[in-house]
TrEMBL record, chains A, B:
It holds the Pfam family Asp_Glu_race. It is an enzyme of class 5 (isomerase). Coiled coil: none annotated. The active site is at C73, C184. This is Glutamate racemase. One of its GO terms (molecular function) is glutamate racemase activity. GO terms for biological process: cell wall organization; peptidoglycan biosynthetic process; regulation of cell shape. Substrate binds at D10, S11, Y42, G43, N74, T75, T185, H186.
């Protein structure tokens, strides 16, 4: 019997933190990752543009017969998820809903902090998702634009990273949030530092972990999980030359990437 | 008599530091600025892609009858300048040559430092340009990836910026460079901090200033300068929604931007 893969995409390398959690939770699954490195970042682009890109990439992955799609990108999850669910005949999982759900479950006080890129925070996607689950929740948000370049630079525990975290997180800490959602796929790399900055009374919610948990639940419910005795294969596609993706990606995935192939979505479209 | 405009383009807002110097040097000139905000950044894209984008944007500006083109983007200057010069019948000025020329003029020791984005440094474009002018020059380079997000965040004189500058510039300082080229259009915003970090014995070369000087020389030589009694108008076009461009751009331009229009280069191409 042949098993279908889990498809995962992001605008760049960030989604590899989600892939890492998926591999950790379900090492038997085959995966196909697509990083749109030619068009990264999405956060500064209009919703129309992001929706168009998301449909192109999902078509590419669906042609490779994936059984489930993970949108490992906060920007796409915020603007394109419902459209993708309507348009493609497979389960589609974003990164916002799982993180929001977990935050509501673990918060005792209902005061929940959310950090992310400027685009994600401005979209209010996490605030809305949390409020849908608990209308009484109080959501405090903060954009942390320097966290992405710090993570990509590998500056995750030096003094620059520490001062940046203190500056960004001070207000949330003083406001007394008891739960903080890491609303950007790059942030798991900074988790030890964010944890240290917020102190032991604040529970961190890692959207990457929660998304992997959602994927496992859905595949289990639909009886689409491979037997745990198997060992998964992992394929990587990017839209621009792979060198930078490989260099930064190895740090993000916490291990060695396999082969990374470059594809041109325009050519694919004509062929498809 | 009607006067033609100076055309300027960059992948985003950074080129506004070049525009600022052009307006300072030639306040009588009309300008048209194009920021490719839908596709920023270029530094991570392949040369083929960058060349294609540069030709699209130059065509857009040439249709608006510009008299000279300023490529206010280091990535494009490094890979596409010769192609643009061959293909379009107007003078084309990049940001690398003027900075390299000035560095060779002012350096006494011939030990010249160059800082820029990872892409610019990896391209060795400044090193080659400097060596062409002085084969004996010793060029020391350093990529400073966090400087762009620091400038866009407006963190240009706090402790995070200071420690980042110290970390990036320490080796160049210890190596005893007497001249440092700011090889990225975002870096003029950090000039006071970089100056403080390098100390009074190091001359900073601001590529934006030198590029404006080159433009003035060429227009003067070709008798294309407007009379100094005139007052220039400034138009701005971007390829994605203008909100973020306007917010960050006002800081970069050191003043109020006028109206900013969004254009879709695909539509333009059909129409053109």
């Amino acid at each position: 019997m042949s098993w279908r893969s889990i498809g995962i995409f992001d605008s760049g390398v960030g989604g590899l933190t989600v892939l890492r959690e998926i591999i950790k939770a379900m090492p038997q699954e085959d995966t196909i990752y697509f990083g749109d490195t030619a068009r990264v970042p999405y956060g500064t682009k209009s919703p129309e543009t992001v929706i168009r890109y998301a449909h192109e990439i999902t078509s590419f992955l669906v042609r490779r017969d994936i059984k489930l799609l993970v949108v490992a990108c906060n920007t796409v999850s915020a603007v394109a998820l419902n459209g993708l669910k309507r348009h493609f005949p497979i389960p589609v999982v974003g990164v916002i809903e799982p993180g929001a759900k977990r935050a509501v479950e673990v918060s005792r006080s209902g005061r929940i902090g959310v950090i992310g890129t400027a685009g994600t925070i401005k979209s209010s996607a996490y605030s809305r998702a949390i409020k849908r689950l608990n209308a009484q929740a109080e959501v405090l948000t903060r954009a942390c634009p320097l966290f992405v370049p710090l993570a990509e630079e590998g500056w995750i525990d030096n003094q620059v990273a520490r001062l940046t975290a203190q500056s960004y997180l001070q207000d949330l800490k003083e406001a007394g949030v008891d739960t903080l959602v890491l609303g950007c796929t790059h942030y798991p790399l900074l988790k030890p530092l964010i944890c240290e900055t917020m102190g032991p009374d604040v529970t961190l919610v890692d959207s990457a972990e929660e998304t992997a948990r959602s994927v496992a639940e859905i595949l289990s419910r639909k009886k689409l999980l491979r037997p745990p005795s198997e060992k998964g294969n992992h394929h990587y596609f990017v839209s621009d030359v792979p060198a930078a993706f490989i260099r930064v990606g190895n740090r993000f995935l916490g291990g060695r990437l396999g082969d990374v192939y470059q594809v041109n979505l325009d050519d694919e479209r004509e062929e498809g």
